[in-house]
Each structure stands twice: as structure tokens, then as C-alpha cells.
Specification:
This protein is of the alpha/beta class. The protein is built from 9 helices and 14 strands. The strands form 3 sheets. It has a 9-stranded mixed β-sheet, with helices on one face. A hairpin with a 7-residue loop joins strand 13 and strand 14. It starts with 5 loop residues before the first strand and ends in a 48-residue tail after the last helix.
Length: about 325
């Protein structure tokens, strides 16, 4: 490190200002932390500035900048390059583009669901969801296990809604190739080296990773490209929403299915970002938060969306 070099953020680092302080998102390590006072000064005012500029600032009263710089370099938050190399590091706006029609498919499975299995299988084939969550409301029938084995795509998660299915059935579910894991109460079961492993599970308040960060800049991180099918076969964007756009009983063609999921009713919440919500726009966790609350249709007088309930983290 020499005086002529300039300070740069590591590509996996994003810095978010919130209510007078800075939060560092380390998207590679999947964690975030609050920058110390001197680190905040560097991150706020000295990115793409020279080491000489930092030294001058410290000599004229900004205490601890060089020590903070060493800490940020050690923690792989920043790095230094020669000024003439700046053109090799152009700023690229983070964008999010999903090739799937639907990213997350959630299905409630009960006795009424059995007749819909062939249509759900075809729906999965047509939409190619990335993740599939099955909420089992009762012990699954043999036809459901066969259905799981024949799924054409997607990583499958199974949630047992208060069911105690027993060790034998749990083992059967986990040995289905596309099933990644089974959530039962506060335990998450998965298969490792042919053995069933259990670990404590709690839904995280925040998901710190590059995918969620990029998505949050353009879309709602919960409602975007989500599809929910209730136990009766009704189709809607999410379980939390009242609006039904179709029914498996009426599903016959891909064109019909796409007309439902591309409708204004189905996609109405997809593009609402945290930056547009009054309660969220100054929150330091807004780019890692998966919020299931439904934004109010009417914006506030300041032009931001509100909610009918308070944030579960802040209350």
C-alpha cells in the first residue's frame, strides 16, 4: 500500500446507510455488521480516493482512519489499487433476472389435493420453479410419494404441519431424489451419507446473500414470482393474499396458466421494493429482509407504501 493508491470496495461488499450509520453487507460470507466510526468515515467519503487523501484527513483531525483502513483491508472489505487501474473496475449496477416463470411454488397437500396431483405435476413441468414447498396437512398417500419421485424439476422442501409421520415415512420422504429436507416443528431433517440427520431450525429474520440483495433492489423479496395453491386447488400469488386468479380444476393449457400468473392481480405486489415502503426505506436490513406483510394499496401522503401491522423485528 502506497500513498498514490486509491481505495476500492471488494466486489462482494455492499455498504448501506441507515439512520446515520453504515451497515456492511458481506455477500460472500453471508453476514452483515455495523461499521465503526472511523470505518464509516472511510466508507462514506474515501472510496476511490487516494491513501494520501486519507493520511491528510487524519493529520487534520479525523482520528483513527489509517488503523480503520488496516482493519477493513484485513477483513476483505476494501482493497487498494493504482489510480491508473480504475478503468479496470467499472461500476456494474446489480440486476436481477430470473429465467423461471415462477421461482417459488408452495402447495398445501391434504385429502382434497389427491385429484390435483397430475395437474400439479404438469404445472411444475410448465413453470419450472426453482424451489417447491409442500405443506403436508395429513399423512401423505402413496400417490403423493410416487408424485414426488416423478417431479421433473425443482428443489423440494416438505413441511409437516403438526404431523408426526414416524421414522419410516420420514426416511421415505428424504430418500426422494428432489427432496432436500423436511421441516417438522423446530427441527429440520435431511439425508447425509445415507443417514437421516436432524438439526434445530428457526426461520431466519434476514437472508444475507447476493441473490436476495440484487432482487431487493428491483422487486419484492417474498411476493415476486411466487405461486401458492391451497388444499382446494385455488391458485394465488401467496398464502397471505386474498386474491385467487384461477383453479386447478380449470387448468388445461399452458397459455391459460400464463394468463393467470401474468395478470395484473397476480403480479400487483411483485415490483414493490423496500425502498418504496415508509417503514422499511431507512432500515439497514431492508436488502436482506423477507417480509410477508402485504403492502397497503394506498400510498402515504409522502408517496410510500404502508402496512397494516408493525415490523416483527422492530416491535
Amino acid at each position: 500500500m502506497n500513498d498514490s493508491q486509491v481505495l476500492m470496495l471488494m466486489p462482494h461488499i455492499k455498504v448501506v446507510e441507515a439512520e446515520g450509520y453504515f451497515i456492511v453487507y458481506d455477500l460472500a460470507a453471508r453476514k452483515l455488521f455495523q461499521a465503526a466510526e472511523a470505518e464509516t468515515v472511510l466508507l462514506a467519503g474515501f472510496i476511490k480516493k487516494s491513501i494520501a487523501d486519507i493520511q491528510v484527513a487524519e493529520q487534520t483531525g479525523a482520528v483513527g482512519l489509517m488503523q480503520a483502513l488496516e482493519t477493513l483491508i484485513r477483513d476483505q472489505v476494501v482493497f487498494c489499487i493504482e489510480a491508473e487501474e480504475l478503468d479496470q473496475y467499472p461500476e456494474i449496477a446489480p440486476t436481477y433476472d430470473s429465467p423461471s416463470w415462477i421461482e417459488t411454488l408452495e402447495v398445501d397437500v391434504g385429502s382434497y389435493s389427491v385429484p390435483w396431483i397430475p395437474k400439479i405435476q404438469d404445472l411444475v413441468f410448465q413453470l419450472q420453479p426453482t424451489a417447491i414447498l409442500f405443506n403436508l396437512l395429513q399423512d401423505p398417500e402413496t400417490s403423493f410419494l410416487s408424485f414426488l419421485n416423478e417431479l421433473p424439476t425443482g428443489t423440494v422442501y416438505i413441511q409437516l404441519d403438526g404431523l408426526d409421520v414416524g421414522a419410516e415415512l420420514l426416511d421415505q420422504l428424504l430418500r426422494v431424489p428432489r427432496v432436500f429436507g423436511v421441516l417438522q416443528g423446530q427441527q429440520f431433517f435431511m439425508l447425509a451419507n445415507g443417514k437421516v440427520l436432524a438439526r434445530p431450525f428457526q426461520i431466519p429474520k434476514f437472508n444475507v446473500n447476493a441473490t436476495v440483495f440484487r432482487q431487493s433492489l428491483q422487486y419484492h423479496t417474498y411476493f415476486y414470482k411466487r405461486l401458492y395453491i391451497d388444499v382446494q386447488g385455488a391458485i394465488k400469488n401467496a398464502k397471505e393474499l386474498p386474491h385467487t386468479v384461477g383453479h386447478l380444476a380449470d387448468y388445461t393449457t399452458k397459455a391459460q396458466l400464463l394468463s393467470w400468473i401474468q395478470s395484473a392481480e397476480f403480479t400487483r405486489y411483485w415490483a414493490i421494493r423496500k425502498d418504496e415502503c415508509e417503514e422499511c426505506r431507512t432500515c439497514c436490513f431492508r436488502y436482506a429482509c423477507i417480509d410477508k406483510r402485504v403492502p397497503l394499496d394506498k400510498k402515504t401522503t409522502e408517496g410510500f407504501y404502508g402496512f397494516s401491522s408493525n415490523c416483527s423485528y422492530k416491535k
